[in-house]
Amino acid sequence: MGKVYIRTFGCQMNTYDSERIASIFNEMGFSYTENPEEADFAVINTCSVREKPQQKVKSEIGRLKRVNGIKIGVCGCVAQQEGEKFLDNFKDVSFVFGTDAIGRLYEIIDLVQKGQRVCDTSTNEGEISIPSFSRETSVSAFVTIMKGCDNFCSYCIVPYVRGREKSRKAEEIIREINYLVENGVREITLLGQNVNSYGKNLDENINFPKLLYMVNDIKEVKRIRFVTSHPKDFSDELIEAMIENEKVMPYLHLPLQAGSDNILKKMNRKYSYGEYLEKVAKAKERIPGLALSSDFIVGFPGETDADFEDTLRAIEEIEYETIFAFKYSPRPKTKAFNLEDNIPDDIKSSRLDALLKKQEKITRKLMKKYLGQICEVLVEGMSKKDDSIYSGRNPQNRIVNFKSNKNIKTGDLVSVKIMEAKKNSLFGLSV
Ligand code: SAH
Ligand code: SF4
Ligand code: F3S
Fold first, then answer.
1. Does any domain span residue 131?
2. Which of 7, 9, 14, 166, when mutated, tests ligand 3's pocket best, judged by the most ligand atoms within 8 Å of its CB?
């Protein structure tokens, strides 16, 4: 039996896609290996959202090509973007397949085994179908509900590499979730570049809030999460659905990107800071214990000190539990690519540092709020560092390590009293 090694970069959707790719290789008689040295096939699932992850692809090819007889494939967002060019520029790459081509991987593998070099980056439109596939499951699993993006934020390459928005039929999503819960999964994270657009291009009368009700009805599902929502589409209907469906966790990733209206406009985000704040205030008021998180870009073309101050002020005002922040990186094809990337790298770096430092303080303050509280923890297993300590997550998605004398199994929901707040995790005792 042959072996396949898969290296994954980028977002959760790539993780999900890699699980699907592994399952297709498995159906074709390959087993998975963590060790590229013993692999017959290697697949690099790539990300092109910033220049850095894109560069990693080259070094990964360089590393893998030293393995004797290995067939190297490249997929994901860089593959979608470069297509045939990959085969021309890298003679060690045997096959390239795009973000919509995973369903055709059977034929691709077949051709590569016959000695051909293959490139398939054709795209699907409208509706997508992802047949159920078997995978290694743990307590928590990702399920893609829609792909692609029609928003065209001026800095972002995703609409060019993931194509237009396309949704999966609700029936197919529910079937996949049923399969997962039969195999022990208790927490489902619904994935999409913009989950709020779910259903727009389907014939059925469905949207994202309605889908949440359907998933909430599946008995064995204990928790539901989702990423990502675009603030402009974050609706009252979604807030209601988050309140009414008790399994939907009080955690919301709502990327603001920048605190200055001037920059938001140039980014083509289609909301002002004031509009964003209003939505967040409403969500906080209506959803008890809501934890917020966000993405930020620093050093967008033309970002002044005053613009950046607005971002600092915003994180203070909103109090996110977590933020993800990045230095602006010009991407080909995007609108902003035509603007001069005029913020020097050392200023980008110092802004990034200042933002993350400020956030550390906010996180520390918010973590202290959990002290003494009793929260429900979904158990993921034993702590990696100490096998007498259980590990799981609270509703707000924080890691909680805890001790207990009870007989606890992975996948249980356990009430834990929080005794200690560390930098990024909590410690407690089961009650
Ligand atoms: N679909 C998601 C985001 C996908 S990309 C959404 O709309 O929220 C993840 C994050 O990468 C973005 O939120 C943004 O903060 C960052 N990002 C995207 N393009 C970037 C670029 N050109 N330079 C720096 N960061 C970027
Ligand atoms: Fe990119 Fe904007 Fe679409 Fe998110 S909403 S994927 S940032 S274009
Ligand atoms: Fe990267 Fe593609 Fe995801 S560009 S962030 S892997 S959609």
1. no
2. 14
CA torsion sign for 195, 96, 155, 308 is positive
* Pocket, ligand 3, Cβ cutoff 6 A: 10-11, 13-14, 47-49, 76-77, 158, 161-162
Find all residues with CB under 8 Å of 397, minimum gap 6, and list them: 225, 249, 251, 291
3-state per-residue secondary structure call for 309-342: HHHHHHHHHHCCCEEEEEECCCCCCCHHHHCCCC
Count of the separate structural domains present in the chain: 3
Own/partner contacts of 215-219, CB < 8 Å, gap of 24 or more, are 215/173, 215/174, 215/177, 215/188, 215/190, 215/245, 215/247, 216/245, 216/246, 216/247, 216/248, 218/174, 218/177, 218/178, 218/181
Do 301 and 422 belong together in one domain? no
| Per-residue pLDDT reduced to its tens digit, 184-208 | 999 999 999 999 999 998 999 999 9
Identify the domain containing residue 66 by its residue range: 2-120
Q: Which of 348, 275, 358, 370 is nearest to 316 (CA)?
A: 358
* Domain co-membership, 311 together with 380: no
- Taking the CA of 13 as reference, the closest ligand is 3
Q: How far is the CA of 194 from the centre of ligand 2 (A)?
A: 8
Q: Binning pLDDT at 50, 70 and 90, where does residue 253 land?
A: very high
Can you give the pLDDT at residue 55? 82
List the residue whose alpha carbon is closest to atom 13 of ligand 1.
295
Per-residue pLDDT reduced to its tens digit, 66-103: 999 999 999 999 999 999 998 999 999 999 999 999 99
pLDDT tens-digit profile of 267-312? 999 999 999 999 999 999 999 999 999 999 999 999 999 999 999 9
- Domain closes at, from 345, 368, 391: 368
DSSP state of 117: -
> Residue 126 — pLDDT band, cuts 50, 70, 90?
confident
Nearest residue (CA) to ligand 3, atom 1: 47
CA of 229 to the centre of ligand 2 (A): 10
The CATH number covering residue 413 comes to 2.40.50.140
Ligand 1 centroid–CA 331 distance in Å is 11
Both 115 and 162 in a single domain? Answer: no
- Residue 358 domain flag: yes
Q: Please check whether residue 129 lies inside any domain of the structure.
A: no
Which residue's CA is minimally distant from atom 1 of ligand 2?
A: 156
Question: Of the ligands numbered here, which is closest to the C-alpha atom of 154?
Answer: 2
Residue 132, in any domain of the structure: no
Closest ligand 1 atom, CA of 193? 1
